[in-house]
């Protein structure tokens, strides 16, 4: 058996084992890198570790550490309260506000499941209270998370941009980010119309309910949570005395929260505007915030998503071994041998989409994009189009109930029949898996050859 075929079989076996058993695929990848590198390729430990993505490790730790502090000191809650105030009583705006919140959270460094875990309970509580389709609301949250998920400061974005840069491909990070954002926005718009979002135009929230939501009391529970027609300006219960308004007043913004918001802004300006290393900037901002408010950073390190860090660094270390074995070039030449560049790109999109519906999207990105590099270097199709299409196809399928994001929406739905809601999510995710990669390929790849 050739080394190239061996590494491919080992890669497939890792995904199978990680699916059947609760073992982090990153840990499996480190073991596979060690065994295959040592026994099959006679590599020294230092050579194997040469594939360890140190820059990516620093970025992942830095941005997730920063987000943990933002969550601890209430800055995330502050952002949610500010966003819900923007609704201004207009129920039709609530799904889009939830889309925007999750997009913002992932864009500044939150992991997609973390953002969905924070926003989904609030969003689905709104859906139950104001008679919004829970499937529409839950999927808007997930697509928002994926829409912001490829910013240069995000986990997905850093992963893809690192692989692209290391392989000499000319794909601008902002193009990747905007491509994913626009694609998910388009899906969200179709979903919004198809599931009756347009019928919410003109429906408003009572003023007293709006004040409670702004103070963080919206969502589940609460009596009298019905929507009223436009023109219900809040007489009666909404304006009866000042007690409700005072009790529902949002807490004052603290200095450490302002500092956190400024730190997130500084990260974006310095990393995007001046091209400074995202990991070093994120870690610097995090340490400054920890010095300003030591209590807020308490237990923050334990909240860093170490399983994700292990997954990504392990996968990319094994990819380094695959490169040493010549597997990447081997697969690229085999794909090119098919003679149809568009067909190869479509197959790669479907591989990413189908597998990612059941496995880790980050792991899939770490595996499929390197395999596409030799094929892309031949210049038959647009590298930018294929990379963005792969990124989109591998992440929009996270609406699946078998993924973490889909499971979070399923678990947090209120006022629904669980089995029926599960079937609705399953049908929607099947549509996305079947059509998503095809549409991404048709919109992002095909025009490059026309």
Automatic annotation (TrEMBL):
Tagged with keyword Cytoplasm: no
Source organism of the structure: Nocardiopsis changdeensis
InterPro entries in the record: Cit_transptr-like_dom, MatC_N
Subcellular location(s) per record: Membrane
UniProt domain Citrate transporter-like: residue ranges: 278-436
Chief place of localization: membrane
TM ranges: 7-36, 48-70, 91-108, 174-195, 261-292, 304-322, 328-351, 358-377, 383-413, 425-446
Source taxon at top rank: Bacteria
Protein name listed in UniProt: Dicarboxylate carrier MatC N-terminal domain-containing protein
Compositionally biased region (Gly residues): 215-243
Span of domain Dicarboxylate carrier MatC N-terminal: 1-149
Keyword field: Membrane, Transmembrane, Transmembrane helix, Transport
Protein topology in the membrane: Multi-pass membrane protein
Keyword Nucleus among UniProt keywords: no
Region of interest (Disordered), residue spans: 214-243
């Amino acid at each position: 058996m050739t080394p190239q075929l061996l590494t491919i079989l080992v890669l497939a076996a890792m995904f199978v084992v990680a699916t059947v058993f609760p073992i982090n695929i990153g840990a499996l990848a480190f073991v596979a890198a060690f065994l295959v590198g040592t026994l099959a390729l006679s590599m020294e430990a230092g050579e194997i570790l040469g594939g360890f993505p140190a820059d990516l490790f620093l970025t992942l730790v830095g941005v997730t550490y920063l987000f943990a502090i933002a969550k601890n000191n209430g800055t995330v809650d502050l952002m949610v309260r500010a966003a819900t105030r923007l609704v201004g009583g207009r129920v039709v705006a609530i799904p889009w506000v939830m889309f925007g919140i999750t997009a913002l959270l992932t864009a500044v460094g939150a992991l997609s499941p973390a953002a969905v875990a924070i926003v989904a309970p609030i969003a689905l509580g709104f859906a139950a209270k104001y008679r919004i389709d829970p499937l529409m609301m839950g999927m808007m949250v997930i697509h928002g998370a994926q829409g912001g998920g490829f910013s240069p400061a995000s986990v997905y974005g850093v992963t893809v941009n690192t692989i692209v840069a290391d392989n000499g491909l000319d794909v601008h990070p902002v193009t990747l980010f905007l491509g994913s954002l626009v694609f998910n926005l388009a899906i969200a718009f179709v979903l919004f119309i198809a599931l009756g979002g347009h019928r919410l135009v003109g429906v408003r929230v009572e003023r007293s309910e709006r004040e409670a939501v702004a103070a963080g009391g919206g969502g589940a529970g609460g009596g009298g949570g019905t929507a009223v027609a436009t023109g219900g300006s809040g007489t009666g219960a909404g304006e009866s005395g000042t007690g409700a308004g005072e009790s529902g007043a949002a807490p004052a913004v603290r200095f450490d929260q302002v500092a956190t918001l400024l730190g997130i802004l500084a990260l974006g300006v310095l990393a995007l505007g001046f091209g400074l290393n995202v990991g070093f900037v994120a870690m610097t901002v995090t340490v400054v915030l920890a010095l300003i408010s030591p209590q807020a950073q308490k237990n923050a390190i334990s909240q860093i998503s170490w399983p994700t860090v292990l997954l990504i660094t392990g996968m990319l270390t094994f990819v380094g071994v695959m490169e040493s074995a010549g597997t990447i070039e081997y697969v690229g030449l085999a794909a090119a041998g098919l003679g149809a560049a568009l067909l190869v790109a479509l197959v790669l999109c479907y591989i990413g989409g189908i597998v990612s519906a059941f496995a880790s999207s980050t792991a899939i990105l770490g595996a499929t994009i390197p395999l596409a590099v030799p094929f892309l270097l031949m210049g038959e199709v647009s590298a930018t189009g294929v990379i963005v299409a792969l990124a989109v196809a591998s992440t929009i399928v996270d609406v699946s109930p078998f993924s973490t994001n889909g499971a979070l929406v399923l678990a947090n739905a209120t006022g629904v029949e669980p089995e029926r809601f599960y079937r609705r999510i399953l049908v929607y995710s099947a549509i996305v898996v079947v059509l998503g990669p095809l549409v991404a390929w048709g919109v992002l790849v095909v025009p490059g050859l026309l």
